[in-house]
Write a structure and sequence with these properties.
The structure is a single chain. The protein is 40% helix and 11% strand. With 275 residues, it is α/β, with parallel strands linked by helices. It has one domain: TIM Barrel (Alpha-Beta Barrel). Strands 2, 3, 4, 7 and 8 form a 5-stranded parallel β-sheet that branches. The longest helix has 19 residues. The relative contact order is 0.19.
């Protein structure tokens, strides 16, 4: 009998301790890594949201032996700084022109060695195109480029990320395209640029077409008259500010009320022969 009493007493003590135990034991959830992965937003730029009337004029495919010096002359006369996206083959032929552009405060970006379509090439071929141009720019100016514009604006998502990771380039597209490569005439080039340019625009044109150079004096003067101020692409990116969300009603959620992050990124204009 004594044995049974001791047995039941032990069972009761165990049950009491179990009921008093805290049932809310937090589960251990693995924490995500705090490392930041570069996003499309801080790799690729086609325009930049700014608080001021700043724009970046960009010129592709040079240097041209005759036209680029003329452009540099008119830029110097107006104290305007621009960004040149140069072709490596042309840099190797005219390093003195690229050296002059850099010396006068213009920015030099990589636009490939021979202007192929990167999206249709192997990684090794793209790497060679970029590295050869990178070396040519550094030999001419003493500095390697930090910006890259893919020919035709054509680049796959995978290429954007490994190029950024390997070369450190920011990839620059555009939001204003006068289609000057079609040679529509200086007046058309001018009017298209004036119509489409807004604060934060990255304007595309080419310093290898005579009509483009003819259009530039009146185009630049008209842009200044409209209150625009010229900066390099890197300077423009440095001026980026978050876009203010539109006010929305408390009870109605509007998709248009969300803020668009800046710098803004537009779809790649890969279908355009520009660039």
């Amino acid at each position: 009998m004594l044995f049974l009493r001791l047995y039941f007493l032990c069972v009761a003590l165990v049950a009491t301790r179990t009921l008093e135990a805290d049932p809310e034991i937090p589960s251990q959830t693995p924490q995500k890594s705090g490392g930041k992965i570069p996003t499309e937003q801080n790799i690729t730029f086609s325009l930049v949201h700014t608080d001021g009337p700043y724009i970046a004029m960009t010129f592709d495919d040079g240097p041209s032996a005759t036209l680029t010096p003329k452009l540099l002359d008119l830029l110097a006369a107006r104290h305007i700084k621009v960004t040149f996206f140069v072709i490596g083959e042309n840099v190797s032929e005219h390093p003195e022109i690229v050296a002059r552009a850099a010396r006068e405060g213009h920015e030099i970006g990589n636009h490939s060695w021979s202007h192929p379509n990167f999206a249709k090439m192997s990684q090794e071929s793209v790497r060679s195109q970029l590295q050869r141009t990178d070396d040519a720019v550094k030999n001419a100016t003493g500095k390697r480029p930090t910006l890259m514009r893919p020919p035709y604006g054509s680049l796959t998502e995978r290429e954007k990320h490994w190029i950024h990771d390997e070369f450190g380039y920011q990839i620059i597209l555009w939001d204003v395209d006068p289609y000057d490569w079609k040679r529509p005439g200086p007046a058309v080039v001018r009017n298209r640029i004036l119509k489409e340019t807004r604060p934060g625009s990255i304007v595309l044109s080419h310093d290898i077409h005579p009509g483009t150079i003819e259009a530039m004096p009146s185009t630049l003067d008209a842009l200044e008259t409209k209150g625009f101020k010229f900066v390099t692409v890197t300077e423009l990116i440095g001026m980026a500010t978050p876009e203010t969300p539109r006010p929305s009603a408390k009870l109605k959620a509007s998709p248009s009320a969300s803020a668009t992050p800046s710098p803004s990124v537009a779809p790649s204009p890969a279908s355009s022969p520009s660039g």
